[in-house]
Predict the structure.
Amino acid sequence: MTDRDVTIEELGELLSSSGGVRIEVDELTAATTFDELGLDSLALLGVITSIERDRGVALPTEAQEARSVRDFLTVLNDALRKER
């Protein structure tokens, strides 16, 4: 991964690879909830761990509490911007 913000498409790929849920990236929107995707808190933790490892950043606890793609991307990209 690079230093730029994570996009919805990139998050969809991460959710598929690290969250254990197959995501159709072209159907993913900012309003999509993790419940709609069948992604539970344990799967989200796997995604968070992968991002932290790949990006070298510790995400705040708000990342674990995010319930939608929009909420998660906001927390994630805010944390990444602070690390730059």
Q: What stands out?
A: Residues 41-55 form the longest helix (15 residues). The mean pLDDT is 90. The domain at 8-83 is CATH 1.10.1200.10 (Non-ribosomal Peptide Synthetase Peptidyl Carrier Protein; Chain A).
